[in-house]
Amino acid sequence: TNPAFKEVLSRIESHKDCRNLPMISFLILPMQRVTRLPLLMDTICQKTPKDSAKYENCKQALKEVSKLKEQLVQDGAGSATKCRQGVLEGLKCDFLALQPFPLVSSSRWLVKRGELTTYVEDTGLFSKRTSKQQVYFFLFNDVLIITKKK
After folding, report:
1. Which residues form a coiled coil (predicted)?
2. 137 strand-pairing partners
């Protein structure tokens, strides 16, 4: 939403060193490199003579690199999902407009959410009244937010 940022980003993306690629392509590069490592290692294994001692080391390296790639891809997908959930929940809450609270953060993720019934006691001078109220809660890894549904 910041016009100055958009202008600078546009200028950077149009620079000859960036070859007119959008910023997103540079953000994806590390993940692409990780996913290519097993392919490279597999090619090295195919070129290594099967009767040499290096072949077993190569196969072990391929196995480990493949395991690392799978773990990084799963972690990355999980983090993106958790962040996306946090963003969606943040957009649903009206109180954010009243109180600046950084709900969306790379170190915060949604753990659980749900609806609860609370009992509120209203004590007057001569009477005592109990009422039920529906609340919706969002439990993040470091904060609990309790809201009322509209």
Report:
1. none
2. 114, 146
Q: Which DSSP letter does residue 140 get?
A: E
Q: What are the structure tokens assigned to 93, written together?
A: 């809450």
Query: Which residue in this structure is represented by tokens 């007057």?
Result: 124
The residue among 27, 60, 78 that closes a domain is: 78
Domain count, the chain: 2
Residues of the domain holding 129: 81-148
Q: Are 139 and 113 in contact (CB under 8 A)?
A: yes
Are 137 and 89 in contact, with CB atoms under 8 Å apart?
Answer: no
pLDDT digits (tens, 9 = 90+) for 60-99: 888 888 888 777 766 655 555 555 555 555 545 554 444 5
pLDDT of residue 24: 74
pTM for the structure as a whole? 0.36
Pairwise CA distance, residues 81 & 109, whole Å? 9
Identify residue 101 by its one-letter amino acid code: F
